[in-house]
Task: structure prediction
Amino acid sequence: ELAAAVERVLEEEMRELSPQLSASYSEIELPLNPPPSKDELLEIAQDSSAYASYQIRWAERMIGKMEKNETFISSYPYPLQVWHMGDQMVVIMGGEVVVEYANNLKQIFSQDIFVIGNSNDVMSYIPSTTILEEGGYEGLVAQQVYGLPNTWKPGIESMIIQEIVRLAEQAGN
Result:
């Protein structure tokens, strides 16, 4: 099936790109909420009926770090890139980016942009404002799977979009 799909695409008319490349890259500090208290972590670690095994392991690791007086990060250096290959814009984002980012970027730039996630770094899901407000795995739990000390603070979506707009201008959009 995949081979047939590739052949079908190759037979379609394609847009020619001019042989110019420009690119821009940056990392922005995405803020994290403060870590839970030791009491909150103990509650998670001791309640296997309410929490998944990976959440219990995360809580135990966090408690271990607290007992060793380790410092927890309060933000994460988030990688972003914009490429222009001829008139084709490509946005390259770190982490498991939710589809709302691509939808919003297509509204800002055009339907023709190409958005790639899981690039340059995979630190967690990168939830939209809506997903952060709704909670669920991508907004409230995924950060534990990746070992981050807590969830992302509200406002990361606008920070990311603003930086992509800046990078697009820098790369010549």
